[in-house]
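Thread: sanity check for a docking pose with flavin-adenine dinucleotide

Original post by kr_44:
Hi all, I'm comparing my docking run against an independent structure prediction. Below are the sequence and the ligand SMILES. Could someone generate the full complex and paste the structure tokens? I mainly care about where the ligand ends up relative to the chain.
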Amino acid sequence: MTQVDAQTSERPTRLMGTRGSQLAYAIRDFLQRSDVPFEWIELSSDDEAREKAKVGGLRDGRLPVCVLPDGTRLECPTIRQIIEKLGWFRDPSRKEYDLAILGGGPAGLSAAVYGASEGLKTVLIERWVVGGQAGTTSRIENYLGFPDGVSGADLAQRARDQACKFGAEILLLREGVRAEFQTGKLVGYLADGTKIVMHAGVCATGVEYRRLGLPSEERFYGSGVYYGAGVSEASLCVNEDVYVVGGGNSAGQAALHFANFARKVFMVIRGDGLKETVSQYLIDRIKSSPKIEVLTHTEVTELLGDSMLEAITLTNNQSAEKRTVKTTNLFLCLGGVPNTHWADEAGVICDEQRYLVTGPDLRQYEAPDKRWPLDRAPYYLETSQPGLFAAGDVRHNSVKRCASAVGEGAMAVTFVHRYLANQ
Ligand SMILES: Cc1cc2nc3c(=O)[nH]c(=O)nc-3n(C[C@H](O)[C@H](O)[C@H](O)COP(=O)(O)OP(=O)(O)OC[C@H]3O[C@@H](n4cnc5c(N)ncnc54)[C@H](O)[C@@H]3O)c2cc1C
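Reply from moderator J.T.:
Ran it for you. Here is the predicted complex with flavin-adenine dinucleotide included:
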């Protein structure tokens, strides 16, 4: 848990703002996932805003205000400004890298640790903060070596420190948008125009949450509607009703975490139970928690509210019966779609669901205009572009687990060495 008790901790970062502020949520989410201790101070009156945040009132455009441990005051800051103040924003230091990794989740971080520790000039590019999906969960209990579990943010920051210790460069808030392949080199383009030249690449861009697809969903995002387990929000749900949508392990974990704070947690699932989709140890805990209720055959069909989510409509998908319930806390854990928007233009083969196809599976997906181009067979994690590897959840047929993502990140580096040795 990153949010701190102001009584017991020395000068954490302080964030002051109003309930429902999307920017305040983005900052909380960023600080939580980055494992930066912070105190959230919710302002509920003009007097409080004047007294605590030193602004004119609740509607003052300078909110939210972020005060860093060294006393720096940032008014209505961007995440980039915060990252710069923390000293985490950097430009690439080299013109060329042996290895560039796209995505800073478990797979990408693992590739960075192994690449850099094995002497490759390594850069990792991450569009948000390190940790990926794993960074959004309060407790990973099945990761080897952590019998009491480990928070995703903690695991991610340890991996980041480890990669940096070995000399990997980590570029945060940078999004890879395009790739080109030249003889012996790959060129990646970032959204801000930066060009990264590499001899080999690992794509570890994972998946991103599915949307419900309802009107107002974007409007309420960060203001009552959240994607993922909402670790930064859990302690703000004390004595409130929380709705978690989804029937997978991530939804189960989220429900259990919210049960520590909320009055009641409702798990909304389309099917008739959790048995097929949730691990037994989580089912046992969900069943034994008096605070969690599983609403089967139920779907969220409407989001209601003015500036913030106030209520949702639940529809029974068997009887079509509808009911509207009040809540300001809707967490969507709906599984993901792979982050491979750039792959088509780059000529990289994907499967029907847009996952990157690698190694022996390529044969099945080859088309006249998209084929493996070399005489040698592709390495196990190699995509249809020689020298570009895929690791973790973004890969066709991958096991969606931290341990396997970490394993594939390490494996990909072994294949990078083989590829570079043959160049
Ligand atoms: C709530 C939750 C709980 C979970 N709990 C467990 C658990 O207990 N045990 C377990 O084993 N697994 C768990 N999982 C699954 C596990 O987290 C994933 O399998 C794992 O994170 C996959 O790692 P990855 O590196 O392949 O991808 P991801 O974690 O998805 O990371 C991909 C990264 O790439 C970045 N990215 C995407 N596109 C770009 C781009 N164009 N440019 C730059 N960066 C980009 C993303 O921002 C992200 O940081 C959980 C997942 C969730 C969502």
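The domain at 217-332 is CATH 3.50.50.60 (FAD/NAD(P)-binding domain). Hope that helps with the comparison, let us know if your pose agrees.
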